[in-house]
Write a structure and sequence with these properties.
heterotetramer, A alpha+beta (about 160), B alpha+beta (about 270), C alpha+beta (about 575), D alpha+beta (about 350), C: about 575 residues, alpha+beta, Aldehyde Oxidoreductase, domain 3, Aldehyde Oxidoreductase, domain 4, 7-stranded mixed β-sheet, 5-stranded mixed β-sheet, globular, D: about 350 residues, 2 domains, 4-stranded mixed β-sheet, 11 strands, elongated
Chain lengths: ~160, ~270, ~575, ~350
Amino acid sequence: MAKTPIVFVLNGAERASFAEPGQNLLEFLRRGVGDLSPKYGCGQGTCGACTVTIDGQTHLACLTLAESVTGRRVQTAAGLATGATLHPLQEAFMENFAAQCGYCTPGMLISAKALLDRNPNPSREEVVEAISGNICRCTGYEPIIEAILAAAKGRARA
Amino acid sequence: MIQSVETHATIAEAQRAMGADAIYMAGGTLVMRDVNAGVTATRIVRSSDPVLADIRLSGDGVTIGAGVTMAMIAVHRDLTFLAPVARSVGGPQIRNMATVGGNLFAPHPYGDFAVAMLALGARVSVAGQSAAPRPIADVLRERGRIGLVASVQVPRPQAPADFGFLKASRIKPKGVSVLSIAAYLPRQGGRIRGARVAFGAMGPMPLQASAVERVLDGQSLDAATITRAAQVAVEGLDPPTDPLATTWYRREVAGVHLKRLLERMARG
Amino acid sequence: MIEFRKEFFADERDDNLNEVGKPTRRQDILGHVTGRSPYFDDHLFDGLLHIRCVRSPHHHARIRRIDIAEAQSMPGVVRVLVGRDVPRNLNTLLSLLDFGIDDEPLLAETKVAYKGEPVAAIIAETEAQARAAVARVRVDWDVRPHVLDVEEAIKPGAPVVCEVYQTNKFIYHGKYDHQKLRYGDVEAAFARADHIVEGRYQMSPIEQAPIETCGAIAAPEVNDRYVCYTSTQALFFSLGTAAKMLTMPSNRLHFIGGTVGGGFGGKVDSLHEPIAILGAMLTGRPCKFAWDREEEMQVGAPRGAERWYIKDGVARDGRILARKFTGYFDSGAYTRLSSYAIIKGVGHLPGPYTIPNVHADVYCVFTNRTPATAMRGFGITGVDFAIEAHMDKVAEAVGMNPIDLRILNSYRDGDMKAHRRVAKNTALIECCQVVADKAGIALQASSRAASSLRDGGGERGRLPAHTALDQKGTVTGIDTGGYARKGGAPGRPAQPVPMPGYSMPAAATAAPRPPAQTPARPAATAASVASSQSTTPPPPPAQPANTTDRPRQGAMRFSSISGLRRR
Amino acid sequence: MALHRGRGFAAINYPIGMNLGGDPSQALVHSNPDGKFTVALSSIDLGQGMKSVTRQIAAETLGVPVADVYVDTADSDTGPHCMGSFASRGTHRVGNAVIQAAQEARAVMLQAAAEELEVDPADLVTDGQGNIHVNGAPSRSITTMAACQAAQFKQGRTVSGRGIFLIPLSEVDPETGEMTPVSCFAHAALLVEVEVDDETGEVAVRDMQSAYELGRALNPKLVEQQLVGGAWMGMSHALWETTEPYYPDRSHGPVDFNHYLMPGPGDIAPHHISVLERPAPDGPFGGKGPGEMCANPVLPAVANAVYDAVGVRIDELPITPEKVLRGIRANGGAKPRQRLARGAR
């Protein structure tokens, strides 16, 4: 079984590694590239813990063939902060106690960022829709919704 | 276990590369799940054919490439009648991945977009075949052996109110279908001419509700007609029991949801 | 949408504290929002091997033969584990606390008792290769009749689910096939009640559904030890279980966990750690064993379904005079923790109410389904559903507002509870009053005036003059450990040591830890094989599966022998 | 079609911890030379906030700012034994063990300070800001850093402490069930408002009003996290969740989150929470532990609310649309009860 070389951009930096035939992007990012921020929750596309963006659009890494990111830009939660400066969503999640076990948090943040990038001032309903592909078992969603709305408001002021 | 992944420049080449040991992957939402579970073929065949991502308007119809995603449809300004259908599929991530072509092959209880295609009387072009596009009902019936879908040709309703879609699910806003219903009710002089109504999750594949269509045809969409349509809603349907609902429940509420959809369409 | 009603119980609190009571940010939150919190699977190893289990497709079957030859020759397969590879392939979780009989193999050898029970484990270079090899293990099954309903399972002639418990019921105190609660005389009270209200309540099996599935990675460490990264909810429980099943001194195991992607009770069963470590021992390489989502949902132990029957005798004015429970806890194929959940549940009856006559018979029943285990509210959630749905019916029967009914019957400081301890620090009435007020519900004057601090004790604080006892469900010849010591404690069990609010807990005198026993496989499995062949006639009341003088097993045990410190 | 509103009520208490094998947990606390502390545990943070709440407890007991303390969990080489994170035992058992360990470390720190200040350690207090001073004489002070430095570089003392919490072993009487099941109880009452569709049997939760008594709220935001998330799980159990939809039949068991149903962010309802704090005599700073019990009242309250709305008793969970619809059919239509309407008696 020949491995496939893959060159792509991860969180702004060019990366290269090899994928097994049929390997999904989640396993490739975690074990091949060493970005552990996307999480395995189901491997079925039903939980959203592995959410990343590819060229700005949210995808489920577990349902994405690793080699399909060749030449494309992938963003994960590990790349949200700029140096030591956290993204406003990260600040808002901390401030609003929007995580308990933290396992869904990286995927949730990516879904939220994709929303705010295209809609800086979303309604509550739009936030609900944007995170509807991400399951959280701990929080009951309310603090997460509040955090995303708070991040949007903070950004609107800035 | 997957041994190789092949990417072909055209959909016709991909079609030729298929075989018993191969699975075609479009958006990946169905196939990658099987790959992850280790229950699939040994070769993945893909195509980078740009035509697959085309949306082409032609007169009163539109040709949608099989690789067009739900997200592309949801935001397309000429496909607003399909936007609610596309938005009902999966969550945002799935909609960025799931394709029109793939949806035709989605097993129960998935395939809500195919329900809409069936109600609209879409026709399907199969890769590598020069023959005329085939009626979607045939394609759905034979979907295990139809070959690769290249595109779907969909009539566009003359009036937005002529087409309606409803999905009943247990989870909001993202849940899979207890059932879904699409209705295409072109009206001339207030009368329905050529009604097409289809149900999803009410059988092994999206099914046309012929009895409902017969009740609606030639009638105006008034309360009495809607009541009669609801009464025959389950005729010809074969709903399964699954973790979401039983056969009994699906049969009980099919008419209720049909009535609600038709009432909404009657209100315009 | 949260308010802190500091005016309640203000005189019992000193709110002048520096750090406690402050909304301090979580210590772990930065790791969570940056995706850097290290869960068990966030540790990378070169040459990591992957483990997948071969599982039973049947609810109940004998294993005639397991053929691993073809699987062993598949690409990437490094090793195939079967039951005989496990040094001590029989365990019950609470044996670490000297409670219960070892009843469950890590990998089944002679029979399976639920669909999904593992019989072999493939260790391969990649997960995909492990999955492919799983399909090539051939098992020759002798499918047996199965039973899935708790009340069917305890009928004479039902298929024997778990060989250790021949009547499909856990044995309590080496004496009864259920846990009893007897307080006063319910039958006498029913006779003088104005209303009898009866109900049947059924919980469903529920998945804990942490977003991180259960798993562990083990690797050889320097100094001839093994490191194990794990998602366990109970580090030393898992370490102790692994040490026992692998007959390994506990200090050769180095467990690391503590950052877990949700648990809710689903990560205490310690199934992954022993297999992952065994894999590392036998291959000399790092091994990962984790469930996929399908396994987590259908093979991972759920919250057990409970069935409760409640019968209340109620006076015209709404006072509940007597409450009788019959409970069936669906333990699935093995004990895991259900035996203890029942003890906890029985101590909780009859709910937060002062009822002068209470009776309960609660059965831990074995059925051919996935073993049950802990989940948020373990032992309590199910019976609380039953009690509170039942209270609504009682309210209707006597024509009372449901909140007034609760307050009328609520326990108060000083009241005697059915488990024969005095209630203190109660606050149910105040909770009811606050909710009624917020919801705009007008309570009776007596309910508005009621207080947890007043009108308890006195007559309500006395034990019943007479308690009706019985010997129903007597079993002989079984020893199920400390909690199940035959005869139990005759008199008054230990009273808790009172502890002041912030003072140091009373210094605990550490009981000497008993030396580790040399593991020896109990005769239970072999002996029981023959006896379970027949599905009829009904087995007599539990024949001895283990003798009472069998030494307690375990490489490491947490508990001093129960009763050492008994007063 | 009609939508029927109904209200249901439930009240519960909840036992904290378990009564098996003494239910012990241990903690170790030690200071760096500069007075910054580490608490070593083998307890698990599942998201409930174990690291955070024990950090606050340790800081309070030591008398230092919370920033001066970090908690390390779950390395069996460094963290002493703990039974684990279950049975609502974490805050109570581990919290008490941390208090004991921190008190021992604090005593050494104060001894060291006393030697430097040449006073009796019994006369010293901490200000929680990093200073130790003579009670009533704030000017006679030393920083916690200086005290710890002196202890470790000058006096030869280890600023450290060991803690364990163990309850007395309790037998259970086989004849009567007499036992000491737990050390304290939390309490809750909850009223839920639902809307029931009498044509489809669908139930939507519209509002929750609750009161939770959970001893001292050691961190109000962590308490809020548990109560909001726990009530969500309670409504999920009531209306959605099951691994065996047709129990005791095992067929049609869900294997993914599309079929294992849990309410989505569009299903949640406003939840108005009131927290009451009656400190537990044996709890750490009076804390009990809200983690498990918060879900419990929701299940029966929802069942009772469905009855209130349409007159159908569902005694088998989960309360699916099918069960409700069958009940409505059996009754010949919805039979609203409205026993808990505003102002009702």
